[in-house]
Amino acid sequence: MDYFLELLIGGLTRGSIYALIALGYTMVYGIIELINFAHGEIYMIGAFTALIIASVLTMAGMSGLSVLILASVVAVIYASAYGFTVEKIAYKPLRQAQRLSPLISAIGMSIFLQNYVLIAQTSDFLPFPSLLPELPFMDAYAQFMGSSELIIVATTAVMTIILTLFIKFTKMGKAMRATAQDRNMAMLLGVNVNRVISNTFIIGSALAAVGGILIASHIGRINFYIGFIAGIKAFTAAVLGGIGSIPGAVLGGLILGWTESFATGYVSSDYEDVFAFALLVLILIFRPAGLLGKSTVQKV
Amino acid sequence: MLELDDVKTFYGSIMALKGVSLKIGEGEIITLIGANGAGKSTALMSICGIVPPRSGKILFRGRDISGRDPHGIVSLGISQVPEGRRIFPQLTVMENLDMGAFLRNDKGEIKKDMEHCFELFPILAQRRHQPGGTLSGGEQQMLAISRALMARPRLLLLDEPSLGLAPIFVRLIFKIIEKINREDGTTIFLVEQNAHLALQVAHRGYVMENGRIVLEGSAQSLLNNEDVKRAYLGI
Ligand SMILES: Nc1ncnc2c1ncn2[C@@H]1O[C@H](COP(=O)(O)OP(=O)(O)OP(=O)(O)O)[C@@H](O)[C@H]1O
Ligand SMILES: [Mg+2]
């Protein structure tokens, strides 16, 4: 039972990170129908930025929570700026082009950002300081859930709730939904669609950066390649849940996290990817639009 | 109020508007009639900047708006009820109306205007929390008109508001178009295939064929014109 709980919590933690990244995929897809392959790299850049800032601050003699907060704020801003810029450089000029063109541009952007970090940093794994605080009250549960796991899950939950409220109730949130449903009509009502698209990239990037900082701090090491792997997993999660759907991204992330966790725990860690992608194939066969995908819910 | 001067608009290499010129005065109801594919919708989309003209001028209250972004054009006071209504299917009726008031910030007045729309179309009040996509065609048309009015436009562009509606809805909608014009002083540019109906409410009209204006005149003179009778009134 304890083992089961441990795997459950492990899957929840992993799934939370996938969910945070998957939200960016799904939001961008919802608005411009593009798979933003460079999204995983934004997550990686978020983690690297946090590492650099945290190192500088530690050298300057700071410690504790203030390092986490400052490093996170800078990393989120920096990653958002990257997301914003990627859209402006690689996707916006191709908005009228055939669908394949921005997709190729996205793959190119992904490769470019990976190699840029590879050259600027190193190909080796770098140690990442454990920035997340130890919560004393978690000692009692240490057997199956650590402080950092609780923080990851709670942060994801809070972020998802804030995002949902933002999309549901704010003017920009409504404009995003309207743009996703009928871009030209939104324009006819005075929505600056370029701004909506930019905001979507900024929000998605910020969430990915948060995910990057959390997981890097939890696992304790990063390299230039982490974005690629996590990106593919999160993309799988988004498709699983139904790409374009926000609750779907979270659900897909969690299901994928649990699948991997249980596969690793009960079968073998060699099979974690096999199970994850087998699940994706099954979903695509029996529910092509994903679990909460548009064409099933939105049919009118 | 609005003046098109030799407007030419293209889809790729296809010329859809081949030099369109027309004038709409403040407070008028002007209709544009023409067969399928004549270029009527394209004219409205050119005015709104969705399909910007390649050449020619579009003057709104003396300013050239061709080449401006659509949101800039809307902010000057031009609203459109596009062909096919284009209701946001997953936004509720109220959210659709909120989107109509996207460029406004006067919350209290927006609320009043929404209540006003509910008075015009009581059925919308009943459906206020329902997703737009679940409304019937007629209800969607009422919502589309209400949504456009939420912007408090000076100029309202309507693209075939009667299309696919039962006669009872058509009469209701035309009555309201006249009312908006009379009571709020909103200028109306009405694109219609139902020429008979359009010429009854309009002051003046233009006839479009193949991307060109081929005839213009008072509504009365067009109703009596032999070519119009034959081609558009089926008499
Ligand atoms: N998006 C588009 N791409 C290419 N050609 C288009 C496009 N939209 C319209 N056209 C062409 O432009 C011409 C004018 O079309 P438009 O929709 O303006 O006609 P319309 O007068 O509104 O017709 P209807 O009464 O059927 O609505 C047509 O020949 C049409 O095929
Ligand atoms: Mg048309």
Question: Which helices and strands occur, and which strands form pairs?
Answer:
The complex is a heterodimer of chains A (300) and B (235).
Chain A: H1 2-32, H2 39-59, H3 65-91, H4 100-120, E1 126-127, H5 147-169, H6 171-181, H7 183-188, H8 193-219, E2 221-222, H9 226-241, H10 246-267, H11 272-286, H12 294-297
Antiparallel strand pairs in A: 1-2
Helix pairs in contact in A: 1-5, 1-8, 1-9, 1-10, 2-3, 2-4, 2-8, 2-9, 3-8, 5-6, 5-8, 6-8, 9-10, 9-11, 10-11
Chain B: E1 2-11, E2 14-24, E3 29-34, H1 40-47, E4 55-60, E5 63-64, H2 70-75, E6 78-81, H3 93-100, H4 107-120, H5 122-126, H6 137-149, E7 155-159, H7 167-184, E8 187-192, H8 195-201, E9 204-209, E10 212-218, H9 219-224, H10 226-233
Parallel strand pairs in B: 3-8, 3-9, 6-7, 7-8
Antiparallel strand pairs in B: 1-2, 1-4, 4-5, 9-10
The complex binds adenosine-5'-triphosphate and magnesium ion.
Adenosine-5'-triphosphate binds at residues 11, 14, 16, 34, 36-42, 83, 193 of chain B.
Keyphrases for this structure?
heterodimer, A: 300 residues, mainly alpha, two-stranded antiparallel ribbon, 12 helices, globular, disordered C terminus, B: 235 residues, Rossmann fold, four-stranded antiparallel sheet, 10 helices, 10 strands, binds adenosine-5'-triphosphate, binds magnesium ion
Description:
The complex is a heterodimer of chains A (300) and B (235). Chain A contains 12 helices and 2 strands; from the N terminus they run ααααβααααβαααα. Chain A has helices at residues 2-32, 39-59, 65-91, 100-120, 147-169, 171-181, 183-188, 193-219, 226-241, 246-267, 272-286, 294-297, and strands at 126-127, 221-222. Chain A has a two-stranded antiparallel ribbon with strand order 1-2. The longest helix of chain A has 31 residues, at 2-32. Chain A is globular and about 55 Å long. Chain B is built from 10 helices and 10 strands. Chain B has helices at residues 40-47, 70-75, 93-100, 107-120, 122-126, 137-149, 167-184, 195-201, 219-224, 226-233; strands at 2-11, 14-24, 29-34, 55-60, 63-64, 78-81, 155-159, 187-192, 204-209, 212-218. In chain B, strands 6-7-8-3-9-10 form a 6-stranded mixed beta sheet, with helices on both faces. Chain B has a 4-stranded antiparallel beta sheet with strand order 2-1-4-5, covered by helices on one side. In chain B, α3 (93-100) runs parallel beside α6. The model of chain B has no long low-confidence stretch (mean pLDDT 93). The chains are: A mainly alpha (300), B alpha/beta (235). Chain A binds chain B through residues 171, 174-175, 177-178, 181-182, 184-193, 298, 300, and chain B through 48-50, 69-71, 74-75, 79-80, 82, 86, 88-91, 95, 98-100, 102-103, 131, 133-134, 147, 151. The complex binds adenosine-5'-triphosphate and magnesium ion. The site of magnesium ion (MG) has 4 residues of chain B, from α1. Residues 11, 14, 16, 34, 36-42, 83, 193 of chain B line the site of adenosine-5'-triphosphate.
